[in-house]
Amino acid sequence: MLVVMKSTATSEMVEAVVKAVSEMGLKAHPIPGANRTAIGITGNKAQVNDTALRALVGVEDLVHVTAPYKLVGRDFHPQDSVVDVDGVTIGGKEVVLMGGPCSVEPLEVTLEIARAVKKAGGKVFRGGAFKPRTSPYSFQGLGEDGLKILAQVRQETGLKIITEAIDPENLRLVAKYTDIIQIGARNMQNFSLLKAAGKSGKTVMIKRGMSSTVDELLMAAEYVMAEGNNRVILCERGVRTFAAHTRNTLDLSAIPYVKARSHLPIVADPSHGTGVREMVAALSRASVAVGADGLIIETHTSPDKALSDAFQTVTIGTFETIAKETEDIAQILGRSF
Amino acid sequence: MLVVMKSTATSEMVEAVVKAVSEMGLKAHPIPGANRTAIGITGNKAQVNDTALRALVGVEDLVHVTAPYKLVGRDFHPQDSVVDVDGVTIGGKEVVLMGGPCSVEPLEVTLEIARAVKKAGGKVFRGGAFKPRTSPYSFQGLGEDGLKILAQVRQETGLKIITEAIDPENLRLVAKYTDIIQIGARNMQNFSLLKAAGKSGKTVMIKRGMSSTVDELLMAAEYVMAEGNNRVILCERGVRTFAAHTRNTLDLSAIPYVKARSHLPIVADPSHGTGVREMVAALSRASVAVGADGLIIETHTSPDKALSDAFQTVTIGTFETIAKETEDIAQILGRSF
Amino acid sequence: MLVVMKSTATSEMVEAVVKAVSEMGLKAHPIPGANRTAIGITGNKAQVNDTALRALVGVEDLVHVTAPYKLVGRDFHPQDSVVDVDGVTIGGKEVVLMGGPCSVEPLEVTLEIARAVKKAGGKVFRGGAFKPRTSPYSFQGLGEDGLKILAQVRQETGLKIITEAIDPENLRLVAKYTDIIQIGARNMQNFSLLKAAGKSGKTVMIKRGMSSTVDELLMAAEYVMAEGNNRVILCERGVRTFAAHTRNTLDLSAIPYVKARSHLPIVADPSHGTGVREMVAALSRASVAVGADGLIIETHTSPDKALSDAFQTVTIGTFETIAKETEDIAQILGRSF
Amino acid sequence: MLVVMKSTATSEMVEAVVKAVSEMGLKAHPIPGANRTAIGITGNKAQVNDTALRALVGVEDLVHVTAPYKLVGRDFHPQDSVVDVDGVTIGGKEVVLMGGPCSVEPLEVTLEIARAVKKAGGKVFRGGAFKPRTSPYSFQGLGEDGLKILAQVRQETGLKIITEAIDPENLRLVAKYTDIIQIGARNMQNFSLLKAAGKSGKTVMIKRGMSSTVDELLMAAEYVMAEGNNRVILCERGVRTFAAHTRNTLDLSAIPYVKARSHLPIVADPSHGTGVREMVAALSRASVAVGADGLIIETHTSPDKALSDAFQTVTIGTFETIAKETEDIAQILGRSF
Lengths: 337, 337, 337, 337
Known about the structure:
Four copies of one chain form a homotetramer.
Chain A: E1 2-5, H1 11-23, E2 27-32, E3 37-42, H2 51-54, E4 59-63, E5 83-85, E6 88-90, E7 96-100, H3 107-120, E8 124-126, H4 144-157, E9 160-164, H5 168-177, E10 180-183, H6 191-200, E11 203-207, H7 214-226, E12 232-236, H8 254-261, E13 266-268, H9 270-274, H10 280-290, E14 294-298, H11 316-332
Helix pairs in contact in A: 3-4, 3-11, 5-6, 6-7, 10-11
């Protein structure tokens, strides 16, 4: 860490900072400059608790030069993590396609969608049984009945299941049925939920919060891993910006950024990332081209009849096109499908 | 609601929309235009479920013209709500000052701060016992011990207590000790937590999420009120933008916006709203001038020794200045302190 | 357009709006609703001047349902525009690669880069002679000497030239030397400059402003086309958001959005779109995969010695890799290179 | 400046950076750390040109610790600048009220507004003769006729005049008529225009760009001052964010931030800062409370008939209320009106 002193700081103020740093058991390295002095700090194992330093007289700013994450970082685990979900591997050579409705539909419809997803090349089936909704009056999902439908989909199709958990108690229920627990964007910093997900030992997919930095997403993963659970997948699903032509702005640069810093797999969600059905195929291609380890796409045999999010849900036909186009792109990148 | 048809939509497509609307038990009013047709929808009691409509061939866009909130809106409750917390009224003529440390400190320190807050004119004491932190390795609060310290503060000073709950189970514990349950910015759309807060019957203060619209904040309050709990206070605490000179951008326009649409009280948090100690007094003045019903300010007798957030915590001296300056401004607006 | 009345509006207020609309020579269509009345307006050729209406008593909101652009829209020109720059076509089947340094370098270096760009498959050479810089003390470009170097590059390599103009007077000078005039992001709403670009008759590439909506970008193009100049290319180069891991957030959804609404070609700039050298190749692949008509990439034989923007400038080796990878992706989309 | 090395950097790489720094005539101070080395740089007079350094092998990041501005900074001019516009002082004890229509109206209407502005306590009259508009088909202002009307307003009322210039040539015309030249938000980084404003020697008010940081605003002022013109006023007018309830988000924290770093006066524009007529009075109070040196407010005797921006233009009655309320607040802060 670096302490930047004010240009008006006296040498006594600089001395006081050096002393405070020493008292923390760390080493201070003053660097006198033309206008002001900076003081480097070394010897810290974790990030320096900067509370005391920031408050000292004459201090202008503190600059952290070490990344705050540990277990999720490549420094501690240089190779890519490959998460094996009962035979489906995420983060390896394969690009994994996940599809299904926004909300779990009644059994017959859900099964019909699942069979089509599988036929098109999908490996994981998505569907929300518990839906976090802005309005208390909106449809909130089928609940445990939805989980049972998902379990039946797995049994009949062999697809793996991903579905969202919305609070720690609810997570224990969800974990009984699903292969992958989804932590939704609104809950990315619901730390109780992240800890519960860590303790569950299940594979966890964490979606980036709609105004979270990528570093905060990595720190959310650190919460899960700090509980001893290494089975973590990240998901870029768009962030909130001033742009008005899409529901969110899909930030594809997050993917190479994560790849450079973390060993964890990361998939893209172009459905929420655009919120516009007509754009999903184009952004799916872009996501695979940029290096995503998978795609999660809202899909329905009759999107117009979907229980929620119809406007961003694609048809099976579009899903098949996406599968075909992204497979070709994956091959260019030396990946399979 | 209004359905906007594409300029290429045929009259058959328009007819199909009219028919679909009728089948929903609503009334359709086509408005043919020079370039395209729009179709007004009336007769709906709640917001129209637009899933089916958006998906019809020829539909360009749907425009909702009714606000989605009900219980929080002035249409249903024209007068200002005044929340009475055991004698301290929020939302009435009085501007209420809340102060205290970011995290609850050890008893002696906490009491010392509380006495100073009270002497300066504060009515409510703040302090986090459970802290949601970006890093799992950061200090997470004193837990139930912190709650006990807060209860003792109330007993010795008569100040009301506000402290944060972070999950539904935790909320039950927090509710046993506190006067006001705080729902933090990261949990504004943690709907399980909001429902639990509603069921508790306690006064609840909801902080605006860091990338939430004001309408989403109002919908979060709707979740609490839908459980039969009318004791809700809102809090503007800054939003995330590209601006780099503050930790968040305090969006003071949220206050007159809320006042125009909702009967609920709203306070401002200039500590998180700026993240910079030196700016807190200036933004406190602005908050009261814009019409806030109160201020919540991180305060410490020795900010430099605070357990967290030292860089945005003001001294008791600054807190007293804020009290004095904002009281004068409150009087100009015909309010007392 | 639709006028939404307040729920408290009386029938007299509704009548007043209907009357005002009639006096504008337009037709009003009242749609009474359960809670409030909306009034559709038809008969307008351009967007309704809503000043008078918005101010009438009882009016809650105005909703425009017609896009504000005309010449840039597909309604008026359904087929894709293909801009032919002296044999290099942009917006057709071909994906066009543009490369070169941020600032024009001395002649020998510039020529060396240009030959490498051409060899790798580039068709257009970029380089700034006039640089808009945040600080008046930063290097501002070689000026007319830079333009002369660019002209020599064209003569010796056959590459087309693109370079930025920064004010109307300067544009007249730039137009004498270049094939394509670039309007930079900071000048996207410099309407005097856009008009001058329109009058020049030269091909114009307009970069999206760093906080401009895509509709505003299209309106900037409308300024150029309104002067009778149809030779317009758009460019997505990233927008400003809270995200901290990149200099800008490349908003690739802008590309399918523009393609759906406008006939104009659009290229992507992954150099400014990320600001990070290591991410340029990945986002280049994504840009072509999403449907961009070309790429403009900061390239240098020795990026570390570049006169500006070194941290986002790629080597010739990376440029060649990008050319190869994006050509493969272009072919999947049925495009050539 | 500080160079942060990668954790994998070898001592040879560190040596290479030290050598490069020395070759720039500067001094390098390596600070070896537990995980990585940082290298402090001192001796630089201006900001270090970091191009060469950033590109060296093993360099992770560069951190600038010196502010990039010089003439606008308090380091070089500790006292507040007071700009005297022919007897009206901005930046001193007085809070200056500026009012008038968005666009200059016909003479009689303009004069009527001006007299009312003066009577309410206004000192400066605003009105656009040249209007930068998103659409080429929108009303673009009265042009030089508008400037002549403004000159007549000054003659008849004694009010000072502020009006916008939109390109360097246009600025020469505007400068002949006006007391203060306004540089609009869209042109904040139109550096040709800023230089022309600097050369004019006239008082210049620079509005913050809608996605500009406050530091970029200060750098825009540096452009004007670098031409030898110290007569600069800044203006906070709101920035673009995801928030939907206002046209822009008025960032009042910019005002104490500027005050701490720069000697230049700064005023607030709550009309553009909200875009909503009903919010202007509340945000005017907040602006003066936070420390603004003045307010610029769109005002009209009949806002509903204004040539542009009617929805954010207040009546004379509201303008008078604002004058009264903000005068009271100014007095609390020890300022006059």
